[in-house]
Design a protein that fits this description.
One of its GO terms (cellular component) is cytoplasm. By secondary structure, the protein is α+β, with helices and mostly antiparallel strands. It contains 8 helices and 18 strands. The protein folds into 2 domains: 250 residues, 3-Layer(aba) Sandwich (Severin); 95 residues, Severin (3-Layer(aba) Sandwich), CATH 3.40.20.10. It is 21% helix and 27% strand.
Length: 393
């Protein structure tokens, strides 16, 4: 297929009427870099070195997250996570960077917007070679989950409108944690600890639950839970009881006494023989949606977006003069060619989000929950291992 055949005009992105002519130019980079150079969070002497760094957005500010809370997130907040790691051989070794901005399900528009803006700024500070990921709480990417041996998501947040779970709870307040294995790239021990509604309808026989009443903790083991989930639940309970001395009782669903936990969660009158509650985190599956490659190009004088290929896709299908969107079914990847125009660079996030909205509105297998699909961006010459793997799949 010719490079620009079948592309559809996007009138709202007409280059002639655009106000983004300077995006991607040397002036634009200089302005952004100078702005980034004044951000205290990026200038602590550790950004740009190998390792993991996390910040939370608080009142439009980027605030370092305590290292002892790495892997712990609140559903009312937005975070920026930077993972820097070495790639290449000894002679050509260099640092690669993954930047994730994680959006809690109850985060505010201001917090989410600040996280997205600051992610771009951090990428500029790292000279534009980072891979950027938009992470949604309900459907995190495997690459994000793989960063943490334990991913913990709790209710609350920095805003005053949310209950701060860090504060001591009244003795009769019920807190229910669901513990389950979540497959992640490169890990076999990845466990999620997710706070769920303290009701019997949150129980599931495949997982382990920890019920904290303040003066006592119960561990409810579903009859189909794995040994790893049981072991991880024991670690969670150990961490919970370090600062306070409370009784802990472990109950298997197969035991008649396990009914006590159901009763405490308001299920005293239910005679349900089994418990099945959908997990709070889902995995994106390519269920019937084919792999597709799209091109964003302004070679004709107007920005055009259209399908290039469907099915088998390889590196040979990419062109460094344009910008491409790869839909694997599980994730949306934006590949920015080294010679892409300033207009193409300036609208990639809007085009990617518009594509996701179109998927969500379209009927068909693989489109359910498309709005939760992870969106990531890489630049030619600095492709992440995850993108290379996705392209070759």
């Amino acid at each position: 297929m010719p490079p620009h055949e079948g592309l559809v005009h996007l009138k709202e992105y007409d280059v002639k009427d655009s106000n983004v002519e300077l995006i991607g130019t040397n002036i634009d980079h200089d302005v952004k870099y100078k702005s980034a150079a004044t951000e205290p969070a990026w200038n602590d002497g550790q950004v740009g070195q190998a390792g993991l760094r996390i910040w939370r957005i608080e009142d439009f500010e980027v605030v370092p997250w305590p290292k002892n809370k790495y892997g712990q997130f609140y559903d009312g907040d937005s975070y920026i996570v930077l993972h820097s790691y070495k790639i290449g051989g000894k002679e050509e070794e260099k640092l690669a960077h993954d930047i994730f901005f994680w959006l809690g399900s109850k985060t505010s528009q201001d917090e989410a917007g600040t996280a997205a803006y600051k992610t771009v700024e951090l990428d500029e500070f790292l000279h534009g070679v980072a891979t950027q990921y938009r992470e949604i709480q309900q459907q995190p990417s495997e690459n994000f989950v793989a960063l943490f041996p334990r991913l913990q998501i709790l209710k609350g947040g920095v805003r005053s409108g949310f209950t701060h779970v860090e504060e001591e709870k009244p003795k009769e307040t019920l807190t229910l944690l669901r513990i389950f294995k979540h497959p992640a790239a490169g890990r076999t021990d990845s466990i999620v600890v997710h706070e769920v509604e303290p009701t019997w309808e949150s129980l599931d026989e495949d997982d382990v639950f920890v019920l904290d009443r303040g003066d006592k903790i119960w561990v409810w083991q579903g009859k189909k839970c794995s040994p790893m989930e049981k072991a991880k639940a024991a670690q969670v309970v150990h961490d919970m009881t370090i600062a306070k001395h409370v009784d802990v009782e472990v109950l298997s669903q197969a035991e008649s006494r396990s009914r006590l936990v159901v009763n405490l969660l308001g299920g005293g009158e239910t005679d349900q023989p089994s418990f099945k509650a959908s997990r709070p985190l889902t995995r994106s599956e390519a269920d019937g949606r084919p792999r597709r490659l799209f091109r964003l190009s302004d070679a004709s004088g107007k920005l055009e977006f259209g399908l290039v290929k469907e099915g088998d896709i390889s590196n040979e299908d990419l062109d460094g003069n344009d910008l491409f969107i790869l839909d694997t079914g599980k994730a949306i990847w934006v590949w920015q060619g080294a010679s892409a125009s300033t207009a193409e660079k300036g609208v990639w996030i809007r085009v990617a989000q518009a594509y996701v909205r179109q998927l969500q509105e379209a009927e068909g297998p693989g489109n359910e929950g498309a709005h939760l699909t992870p969106i990531s961006k890489v630049t030619e010459g600095s492709e992440s291992r995850a993108f290379i793997k996705a392209l070759a799949a």
